[in-house]
Amino acid sequence: MPPPTPIEPKAVEAITADATTAEATPAGQPAPRGFRFRCIACGDLTDSAVQNFRCSRCGDLLEISNPSWSHTQGSSAPTAADLKATWKQRRASLSPVDLSGVWRFRELLPTLENLHHVITLREGNTPLYGLPQCSRMIGLPHLFAKHQGMNPTGSFKDTGMTVAASFARQAGFRWVACASTGNTSASMAAYAARGGLRSLVLVPEGKISWSKLSQALDYGAVTCQLRTDFDGCLRLLQELVLRAPVYQLNSINPFRLEGQKTLAFELLEQLDWQPPDHIIVPGGNLGNSSAIGKALLEMHDLGLISRLPKLSIIQAEGANALVRTLREAGGKRLVTVQAETAATAIRIGNPASWKKAIRVLQATGGACEQVSEIDIARAKAEIGAEGIGCEPASAVTLAGLKQLLKQGFVKPGESVVLVLTGHLLKDPGFTMEFHRGEPLPAAAESDSAVSELQALRHPPIVLDATLDAVIRTLEQQEKSNLEA
Ligand code: F0G
Description:
The protein has 484 residues and is α/β, with parallel strands linked by helices. The chain is 39% helix and 13% strand. The strands form four sheets. A six-stranded mixed beta sheet has the order 6-7-15-12-13-14, sandwiched between helices. Strands 10-9-8-11 form a four-stranded parallel beta sheet, with helices on both faces. A three-stranded antiparallel beta sheet has the order 3-2-5. Strand 9, helix 7 and strand 10 form a beta-alpha-beta unit. Helix 9 crosses helix 11 and helix 11 crosses helix 13. The longest helix is centred in the last third of the chain and has 17 residues. The N terminus is likely disordered. Bound molecules: ligand F0G. The site of ligand F0G has 23 residues, from helix 6, helix 11 and helix 15.
């Protein structure tokens, strides 16, 4: 890996310190060569973006587009066969960019001026697991989990962060910043540290897991616990980036979403380019679902896949802004909520990328559902019992799948991939409380549901340090197994 490129202070000055509106900061980050920024609402195409990554005409979010990729425009698009062969070949390479499960797919990512700018921790390359016990339990033979928790900092955020942090370094920024429910901050802090950048983290005080917070601290981020929720942190960050020379690394940043597309490229490669019928993802700020949807549409456009999987988004009942937006406003305006869920990663009430997410739901024919706290806890324990595990936010996918099966949206013969977004160790507090039998949020618990959960709980057993005590415990376990 080459040494970090020195930061050019001049480039930082491109974002003026006293600017307060998008119009006031015309000189922003240039679009990568061959690409343009496109507004998702008014379609305006521009060659540079200010640091809130919003359209200077209508204020909506920007995405990165490569106009030459659409096959309908004839063009310089790479052929599907060439892409598949190149990506396969790179798996035998020892170069750091090829060892990255993100940069290996660089033909479909924005182009860096020089690959020496890449900040990589060998992200991506995550396993696709079968879930045999869950398959049997719900009667769905073709069920898989794409485990993004196996990324270097334990969540899917790394695939986006390697791209956005590399562009931040190329643009000459010294500071990067994010608002976070925990995983983005852990990932950003790690990539910033790797790339010689300083990082500023804004997290809601008392609302994120210690495990995630500890990562940010260890990677050297300036970590501010704000007395607000995630939505309050993000609001503040959006203002900050227009006032101070910091580069924002939330999923509003379209470079992040470009990196997160690679989950879908890698998944389809693992399935030998045979699309599954369904892909199911958790929905929080809705960047990830938007990124995966964008990747599916691009792959379809380029002929890498012959049909689109249905991409479905699952939210916690207590953080169900997208569900309500679709049900109560027909997807026309955002219905925000005061978010509350023990799945703290998706405790978000005002999701930034809601329009992008609705677009991919419509384009792929996916569904949007919500699941209860008790369903999340049960699904998390069931994924744990597979020897895999995940954090609570990821478990909404299995809980949601059960509902989609019941509704007939997913059929028993179909193939389904659940995207597990975070590692089990991201939230040990939740796991310990569950296995110790501590009560789940009161409103969610009925007597029968609680007794059903009992079988999934494996509380630690405190014993005297004697052989007898351990053998008695083994015998008791055997007995209760036979009775079950
Ligand atoms: N799963 C996990 C484990 C997450 O950390 C997040 C988001 C999501 C799902 C939802 O993804 O926001 O793209 O819809 N975490 C962000 C964070 C918000 O700050 O770490 P999304």
